[in-house]
Design brief:
12 helices; ADH_Zn_CS; Quinone Oxidoreductase, Chain A, domain 1; seven-stranded mixed sheet; globular; binds zinc ion; six-stranded parallel sheet; binds lauric acid; Rossmann fold; binds nicotinamide-adenine-dinucleotide
Length: about 375
C-alpha cells in the first residue's frame, strides 16, 4: 500500500515527506494505522548522524499510538480495531531475558531490529526499488507501520492517541525508572538531574509513589514552573550554586539522596548524580544516553561505601504488561501528560518540531495524522 511518511534519507538532512510503499503483515505481525507520534531526542540524535548505529534511508519515530488494521497469520494477542502503542522494547514472554524476570530487555527480535529490519530479515518499506530501513522496530513517522505482535501493547479505547503516544517512550521511561527500576519508596528524598521530557516524568513518578523531597536540577530556569506543577519541591540551578554542587545537594538532603536520576546524557552530571547519593544506600539511576565514546568515572570508594549505580532503559517497563497500566494511570488522573505536549503539528510540520527541540522551546511535540 502507499503510505505518507517522513523519510530520513541522509544524516544531517531534514526529513522529507514522501509516499512510500509498505508491504502488509507477515506471520506474527500486525499492520497499524498510526494516529499520532511524539518526536523525541533520540530521533534527533539518529537524524543528526551522531548515532553510530543509525541507518539511512530510514523512517524514524518510536513514540506512536494507533489502531490495528490488519493482522498476519498466527496473531493471537491483538485483533483488527484494537488500539495499541508500538514498543521499541518488545516483550515476547518466552526468551531467556523475559523469563528471567530480571530485565525488560527482551532479546527475541534484537538483532534484526538493530539492523533496521523486520524479524524475517526484510524491510517492508520501499520507494520504488529503494529499500527504506525500519527504525527502533517502530517507524512511527509514517501513517501506517508494521510490527511483530510481541512489540505492541494493547490499550484502552477511550485513551486519546495524541496524548498517550508519549507513553510509547518519554512517560514510561521517566515514571518507569522510578517505579520499576529504582522502586522508590514513600518518604524518599529524590534528586532529578535534567527537567526535560524525561526528567519531568521522573518528577511526577516520584510524587506518585510518595517521595517527600523532590529536588530538580536544571541549568534552564524556565523548567522550574512546570517541574513544580509536576511535584518538584526544590529547584537547583547549578549555575547559581556558588561552590560544589554535590556538597550543596548532600547538605540540602541532610546526608544525601535516597535516589537520584540522571536525565541528560552528560557523563559529568552522572558522576554528580551518584556522588550526591546517601552513603550506605543511595541509588543513582542513569537514564540519559551519553554521546558515543563517552565514559563514566567515580572513585570506587563511592560504591564500596554503599552507593549503587544503575541504568534504566524504557523505565524498566515490560511493554505489553506495563504500558496499558500507565495508560490507565493517565486516564484515572494519577499522572499528567497534557501540559507536557507543548506543540501539535500535522506530518508536514514535523521539520519544525526538530527546530523547536534544538531551541529548547518544546517539551514534547506530537504529530497528529
Ligand atoms: P531534554 O533535552 O528535553 O531535557 C534535558 C534537560 O537537561 C534540559 O531541560 C536541559 O536544560 C537540562 N540540562 C542540560 N545540561 C544540564 C546540566 N549540565 N545540568 C543540569 N541540567 C542540564 O531531553 P529528554 O528528552 O528529557 O531526554 C533526556 C535524556 O534521556 C536524553 O539523553 C535521551 O536520549 C535519554 N533517553 C533515555 C531513554 C532510556 O530508555 N534510557 C529513553 C528516552 C530518552
Ligand atoms: O536489548 O540491547 C538491547 C537494546 C536496548 C535498547 C534500549 C534503548 C534505551 C535507550 C534508547 C533511547 C530510547 C528512546
Ligand atoms: Zn523476550
Amino acid at each position: 500500500m502507499d503510505v505518507r511518511a517522513a523519510v530520513a534519507f541522509e544524516a544531517g538532512k531534514p526529513l522529507s515527506i514522501e509516499t512510500v510503499q509498505l508491504e502488509g503483515p507477515k506471520a506474527g505481525e500486525v499492520l497499524i494505522e498510526l494516529k499520532a507520534t511524539g518526536v523525541c531526542h533520540t530521533d534527533d540524535y539518529t537524524l543528526s548522524g551522531k548515532d553510530p548505529e543509525g541507518l539511512f534511508p530510514a523512517i524514524l519515530g518510536h513514540e506512536g499510538a494507533g489502531i490495528v488494521v490488519d493482522v498476519g497469520p498466527g496473531v493471537t494477542s491483538v485483533k483488527k480495531g484494537d488500539h495499541v502503542i508500538p514498543l521499541y522494547t518488545p516483550e515476547c514472554r518466552q526468551c531467556e531475558y523475559c523469563l528471567s524476570r530480571k530485565t525488560n530487555l527482551c532479546q527475541a527480535i534484537r538483532s534484526t531490529q538493530g539492523q533496521g529490519l523486520m524479524p524475517d530479515g526484510t524491510s517492508r518499506f520501499r520507494i520504488g526499488n529503494q529499500r527504506i530501513h525500519h527504525y527502533m522496530g517502530t517507524s512511527t513517522f509514517a501513517q501506517f507501520t508494521v510490527l511483530p505482535e510481541i512489540a505492541v501493547a494493547k490499550i484502552r479505547e477511550d485513551a486519546p492517541f495524541e496524548k498517550v503516544c508519549y507513553i510509547g517512550c518519554g512517560v514510561t521511561t521517566g515514571i518507569g525508572a522510578v517505579v520499576y527500576t529504582a522502586k522508590v519508596t514513600p518518604g524518599s528524598k529524590v534528586v532529578v538531574f535534567g527537567l526535560g521530557g524525561i526528567g519531568l516524568n521522573v518528577v511526577q513518578g516520584a510524587r506518585m509513589v510518595g517521595a517527600d523531597m523532590i529536588i530538580g536540577v536544571d541549568i534552564n530556569p524556565g523548567r522550574k514552573e512546570m517541574a513544580q506543577r509536576f511535584g518538584m519541591t526544590h529547584f537547583v540551578n547549578p549555575r547559581e550554586v556558588g561552590g560544589d554542587l554535590v556538597k550543596y545537594l548532600v547538605d540540602l538532603t541532610k546526608g544525601g539522596a535516597d535516589y537520584s536520576f540522571e536525565c541528560i546524557g552528560d557523563v559529568k552530571v552522572m558522576r554528580q548524580a551518584l556522588e550526591c547519593c546517601h552513603k550506605g544506600w543511595g541509588e543513582s539511576i542513569i537514564i540519559g544516553v551519553a554521546a558515543a565514546g563517552q565514559e563514566i568515572s567515580t572513585r570506587p570508594f563511592q560504591l564500596v561505601t554503599g552507593r549503587v549505580w544503575k541504568g534504566s532503559a524504557f523505565g524498566g517497563a515490560r511493554g505489553r504488561t506495563d504500558v496499558p497500566k500507565i495508560v490507565d494511570w493517565y486516564m484515572e488522573g494519577k499522572i499528567q501528560i497534557d501540559p507536557l505536549i507543548t506543540h501539535m503539528v500535522p506530518l508536514e510540520g514535523i521539520g519544525e518540531t526538530f527546530d523547536l527541540m534544538h531551541r529548547g522551546q518544546s517539551i514534547r511535540s506530537v504529530v497528529k495524522y
